[in-house]
Amino acid sequence: MGHQVIIFDFSLIRGLWEARVKKNKERQKKEKERLEKSSLEKIKQEWNFILECRKKGIPQSKYLKNGFVDIDEKILDMCEKAPQLQKRITLSDETNKETNKFIFQLSGEQWMEFPESLKDHTYLKEWHVSNTLIQTIPNYIALFQDLRVLELSKNQINHLPVEIGHLKNLKVLNVSFNNLKSVPPELGDCENLEKLDLSGNMEISELPFELSNLKQVTVVDVSANNFHSIPVCVLRMSNLQWLDISSNNLRDLPEDIDRLDQLQTLLLQKNKLTYLPRALVNMSKLSLLVVSGDDLVEIPTAVCESTTGLKFISLKDSPVETIVCEDTEEIIESEREREQFEKEFMKAYIEDLRERDSAPSYTTKVLFSLQL
């Protein structure tokens, strides 16, 4: 049977998307203005004031009156004049200054490459680079043998250098929401890696088998990519506790998924799964399983009625057609932004679920906007 080909006026589709994005931004602006006028903003101000008082060692009796927070700035001014508090503040500032000298931070679209002087600071332990136009990680990263944290989210990075395998002390690698299409096998040499975040790159479809060597990894996030199955290397990460492979193209799960016997959280929503394997019942430490229920026709009864404390969540997507238009950068960027927003929503949702004694059997997701 031949494929049906539907011809669209792409200019019309683009116009519809632009109107939708504009309308969404206007809605977010109005929501922000409403929140600023609401009691939520007052609560936020009070909480920030309390945090500031605690940071400066100010006793509760100074800012709490009959159970209410007095956000009088004079309280901070008066207490700052106290010599003992001033000494404590000075010591805190010195500690922060000492810590910050091991951290490299960079942000802003004016940056298209790493500063040349960076290679002279090989003692650094953390890199935090985001929201830049940087496309390439320099090869001299191999010189940073003390590097523990590599946070490079929301840039334009299109590949990881093989030199990354020299970072034997690396514990956190976050290259989410970049333009990666693959991952080098050498990453498997980072034997102390504990967290790997490749989410939001949209086009990664496989991981090298060499990543099986990452036995210390507890968190893997490969959501919003193009995986058709759970990579074999992930199934061999014996200490894995959190796996997010949502927003991919999974059609089934491996029958031996229960080899991930330490797994506690498994996020599978927004895939093309039609059934769940019974092997999930054997995963005694699994406490949260999230799927999209619209395509599922077979779910083991034992999963839904688990006596092990498993919270099984089936999300119901709103029936809105998704129009995909190739070679339209604005639509791709809009999709990326939507994935970021949904990720933040799911993070808050999961944190809320963990605080409950029980979970709803399903959640209907109509719009990702919270009415307070």
UniProtKB/TrEMBL annotation:
> Which InterPro entries does the protein's record reference?
Leu-rich_rpt, Leu-rich_rpt_typical-subtyp, LRR_dom_sf, LRR_domain-containing
Q: What species does this protein belong to?
A: Gallus gallus
Q: What is the lineage of its organism?
A: Eukaryota, Metazoa, Chordata, Craniata, Vertebrata
* Name the record gives this protein: Leucine rich repeat containing 2
Source domain of life: Eukaryota
